[in-house]
Design a protein that fits this description.
mainly alpha, 91% helix, elongated, 85 residues, DUF6809, 4 helices
């Protein structure tokens, strides 16, 4: 991403998405996921825990890439709409 676009993306991550994620259903889903993860971790042996951590790190990276792609797509659409007006 270009520097200005990166700045906008960082700002959106820091402030722009929070209002959309504060809904009760999101909070409940996040709490359920955390509870299930805690239960799973308690059941795993050290080797499986290591594998789970590798999965979590890879998933975190792909989610970041997905968020960036969605941001870039939304930014492009907004720019196209703005130039049409």
């Amino acid at each position: 991403m270009t520097d200005p676009l990166q700045l906008l993306y960082d700002e959106a991550l820091a402030t722009g998405i929070c209002p959309y994620l504060s809904a009760g259903s999101y909070r409940r889903a996040a709490d359920d996921a955390e509870e299930a993860l805690d239960a799973l971790e308690a059941m795993l042996d050290p080797q499986a825990l290591n594998l789970l951590e590798q999965y979590r790190e890879a998933r975190f990276q792909t989610q970041g890439m997905e968020l960036e792609a969605m941001f870039r797509s939304a930014f492009r659409m907004a720019r196209e709409l703005f130039t049409q007006v």
